[in-house]
Amino acid sequence: MIRVGIIGAGYMADHHLKVLGAIEVAEVTSITSRTYESASKMSQKWGIKNVFESHVEMLDSGEVDVVFICPSVDAMFSITKDVLERSIPCLIEKPVSLSVDDAKQLSDLAAQNNVKTTVGCNRRFISTIVGAKMACQELGGLRHMNVVAHEPISEIAASGQYDEDVITNWIFANGIHCIDLIRFFVGNVEEVVSTSEGQNYSAMIKSGDITGCYVSRSDSKGRWSITLDCVKGRVTLCPLEKTVIQSGSDTQTINLSDIDKEFKPGLFDQNSSFFKFLESDSDKANDFNLSDVHDNLQTMELIDQIVS
Q1: Domains of the chain by start residue, with CATH
Q2: What is the pLDDT of residues 141-192, one digit of tens each?
Q3: Cα 280 → chain centroid
Q4: Structure pTM?
């Protein structure tokens, strides 16, 4: 069994704990959070034996083999740094940080200490998105990708849930999901032409002979959508949890799998792949379709190009 420690006791920690209870090789032994009370409540809900006052106490306890890092955004970088300095394998919820410089520090630290990591890009594993990527191959290959990912920034700010730094860098904090999917579908982006202004983002991208467009406005609503134009047809995801494949007069629909209905979409397959990665001899997260801190750094650098 792999002994798991949870850092954080909020929304994503709860979702991860539900998944971990269904993964045979995982045994959640420990939890900690910013407040002992919230960690204690979560431990009672999920039957976790050890509740620690701090993440440092938990990391140094000898009770965990791997940690899931799910704190508030403002604490993510410093906690992840503490974990990597101890060479403890970890799954880190996005964002690992709000800046490229901090993300590079984490990438360098993981490389120095030879630590296996995964960043929570669960949308890569949603059954509809996996099906869309397979459909692109069957339709002769992707030629153009169009991503619309509007974010109502003023409404998000008005919720009072996030501090100003997170709101200002919301494309790193949340928009990163769709930008990671750009790299998931087209590979590493070679060229970016940005016409972004403030938090209204617009950019053209190129990867080999594949072109793409990313748009996200702060004053527009609407579900995220992705359109994939292929040699022999088109694949549309709107919302991302439904895939429509068009080839000539034929139309096929892919809906969420049963596992994605039971758990937060993509999370079970992502976390299962993480444990397979841990148990393997490979040091490459990409072998398991995962994004680690090194791959995530490339996504952060792409965001930086879109922002500027």
Answers
A1: 2-122 (3.40.50.720), 126-256+292-307 (3.30.360.10)
A2: 999 999 999 999 999 999 999 999 999 999 999 999 999 999 999 999 999 9
A3: 22
A4: 0.96
